Amino acid sequence: MNTQKVMRLIVGCLVIVAMVKIFFHPSSSKDTSVKTHQIIQGGNFWAKQHIPQLNLVHNEEDPVKKEHAGNTEVQPEEKETIQSNQEELEPEIPDDTPMDPLKIVHLDLKGAAPKVKYLEEIFPLLSTLGANGILLEYEDMFPYEGELSILKSSFAYSPEDIEKIKSLAKQHKLELIPLVQVFGHLEFVLKHEKFFKLREVETYPNSLNPQAQGSMDLVQDMLTQVMKKHPEAKWFHIGADEVRGLGESEDSKRWLEANSGDMGKLFFNHVTAVGRFMTKLKRGIKLILWDDMFRKLSSDTIKESGLQDLASPMIWKYIPNMDVKEIGNYISKYEQAGFKGVWFASAFKGASGIDQKWTPISHHLKNHLQWQKVIQSMPQYKSVRFQGIALTGWQRYEHHTVLCELLPVAIPSLAVCLQTLKYGSFDTEAEKEVQHLLGCQVELSNNECHVKGSFSPYHRKRSFANPRNLAFFKDGLKKLMDEWDSFLLTFRKNMEAIFYPDTLEEWLEENVNEHIERLHEMVVDVERIIKLNGQPKVDPSKMR
């Protein structure tokens, strides 16, 4: 089976698995909508394999960003290693970066990181869909070495994997931008006892204490190792969003007391120090950081920090009804602060629910339509340039939370969003282009979905049911169970072609196993109760 067929099968499998959860949770929301995905013949990516029409229920939720994360000192010999690594980096990057804004696809590797073999298939597709960059958020998938080797996942990419990823990106004309968090969302680092002393809040692993001895050494070591693997990078994203609990450590409290309680300065001191380090580490590197921590600060406060000379803000907002005027106010503020460039961040997945199983395409389409309005307004800002937009694809809201929808499920959403940016709207032309590239047409219709019957948990608990009613679905239920057992064997095999074992086990545990077990139990209960011939209710307290 070729890889495109595998990818089509994976999406179909994931969608069908979602239906099992719906079967057991039919009334989880008062307002539900049925999403009809009709996979049709005629495209290069999906169409060579027939997949039947599927009716899916999607419960709308109020989105959050993901709205859209021992010895702590570096020893002398480690500092020598850092210095050595810096010296090995190539000289200043020539300023030949493209003038046209980039459309970059964010790959969040903090969960369900795809195998390199899958990236070989997906990178050419991304390029065909209109992307010209990749924002690679490594987290624990980077092969950290030395004192930082504790940070890497057991399935982390190898140095050879990274070289392959870089080669694939270059081959398909995708600008590769590494992302390393340096302040907030450092859960994957601060969860380790070795780094507990660097936490801003002692009991929470979210954020780094910027005043703690060893904090900057840690950040510099991480950045140096990643930069060493990406010496050709023109841009580098340093994160710095959602610094939870900033100002709560005793170190920070003392600093604030001595500095008139200036929280903005506390934040800027750290990120500008990181920025200066990066520009010395790699002359000519262009830095990006998330903007949320300084949205409420004045342009004068931002300008005083000097951040505008070191980095460009990436304004993120993922909700469908995004306030375009609010975004405009941010752009005006950042222009007044002296930033020469600004980036935007939308979302094509992972921003509509912390445990979302499949991607609500209309949610993300509306988000991109709003961003398109912002992009069209950019000529009014004379001294700040629109540098590009990152279509984020969050895989977890943060390191300790469950997986959001998997990347293969979100490919149709990504296609719709990229084509919307290309055409300025999702008009007939854009829709035809998506259909041509994927062979996938998405139709939405509203309806209500209820599972009704005479075999509820109440009936089962009391062994009370009419055999005639049970006979209507007994054979079908048993057949369904047998089909699912067979289907899951195929599903597991094909998932293993894309993801590492830990991702597969987590996804099955979160989304499948419980429901399959309940289906098995239902089969057993039907066979048991149908033999009772409709006898009176049994008092549960008297049952053994």
UniProtKB/TrEMBL annotation:
Species per Swiss-Prot/TrEMBL record: Cyprinus carpio (Common carp)
Catalytic reaction annotation: Hydrolysis of terminal non-reducing N-acetyl-D-hexosamine residues in N-acetyl-beta-D-hexosaminides
Keyword Hydrolase attributed: yes
Keyword annotations of the record: Hydrolase
Domain of life, per lineage: Eukaryota
Similarity comment: Belongs to the glycosyl hydrolase 20 family.
Name recorded for this polypeptide: beta-N-acetylhexosaminidase
Region span, Disordered: 63-95
Molecular function per GO: beta-N-acetylhexosaminidase activity
InterPro entries (alphabetical): GH, Glyco_hydro_20_cat, HEXDC-like
One of the GO biological process terms: carbohydrate metabolic process
Residues of the Glycoside hydrolase family 20 catalytic domain: 153-323
EC number(s) per entry: 3.2.1.52
One Pfam family named in its UniProt record: Glyco_hydro_20
Top EC class, one word: hydrolase
UniProt cross-references to CDD domains, sorted A to Z: GH20_GcnA-like
Biased composition (Basic and acidic residues): 63-81
Taxonomic lineage from the root: Eukaryota, Metazoa, Chordata, Craniata, Vertebrata
